[in-house]
Amino acid sequence: MDLVRYFLDHSSEILSLTLEHIWLVGVSMILAVLIAVPLGILIAHKPGYKGSLLGVANVIQIIPSLALFGFLLPVPWLGDRAGRLAIVALTLYALLPIIRNTYTGIVSVDPAVREAARGIGMSSSQMLRIVELPLASDLILAGIRVATVISIGVATIAAAIGAGGLGEFIFRGLAMVDNRVILAGAIPAALLALLADLGLGAIEKRLRVPR
Fold first, then answer.
1. Which among 44, 64, 78, 164 is least surrounded, fewest beta carbons within 10 Å?
2. What is the pTM assigned to this prediction?
């Protein structure tokens, strides 16, 4: 009951920070998709770039989130605004699963389908747009789904640099040693991750094609 009362008393702040959290994740995911999908297509068609691009994305993924924020702080323009810094960090974290799944989706297209597309005179760009991307769409979305859930979790750390979001409650609660405050950030963040996973998972199932 004490926790419920705390949620009711602070509902406006919880809503505000939840919307801020969604904004941070939403903007970073849009940027990640715009960057990672073309990179995934690139390494699918030019495998020579695969090792270096995936290697860089893997290195970024294994850097602890607070350390990555620290590395980006001295960067001109980014360090001036915590929100910008958080969005760039979240975008970098989201790249690997989207690049990897885009690559996998493109290369897993049945060669017979490619040959049929070439046989009717499709150019490489037409084949990509009409054949490869639609057939790979479920795997691409699976990568976006994983990246979104990761970003929702990592975005809670962004509060440590003043970027806002639900992590503010978590860090405030840790400082106060108050479980109610911690849960005021942790529960909405967990619900956001769950809703994103279920929603994108449902869309992914609709797009799934037999291979």
1. 64
2. 0.90
